[in-house]
Amino acid sequence: MRPYDFSPLYRATVGFDRVTDLMDRVLASEVNHSTYPPYNIEKTGEDSYRISVAVAGFSEADLTVEQRENALVIAASKADEGEERTYLHRGIATRAFEKRFHLADHVRVSGAAHIDGMLHVDLVREVPEALKPRQIEIAKGDRIEGKAIEA
Question: Considering the entire predicted model, what is its pTM?
Fold first, then answer.
């Protein structure tokens, strides 16, 4: 893997250090990236998303879904069943896992469902009214909101 140097960005920009930190974190975790359990990320609407995780063998009681600041953490741990089994072939892994997804600002979890061995987590982006673009009315004449414009 080729290391990337983001120092030229620091010289030419202000306030983008979170972006470069995120890129550093993604590139560093790429080496340790686990493919278990498999998952999909899909865009279901203009401002909505769904993460689907294959959790065959886990019940709702074994799963936890938490949103911590800008991170979604999905974890599972299987309680010991107590009885000893002898497997001739064991293809369904039920080992404990923790998956982390970094969320953009203003993205929140709107719900989760466990259906047919799949855990579906729905996300929605809600931009506050203060951050949405707004049209500014142009005043006619020499007054702005009741104040005279100084010449």
Answer: 0.69
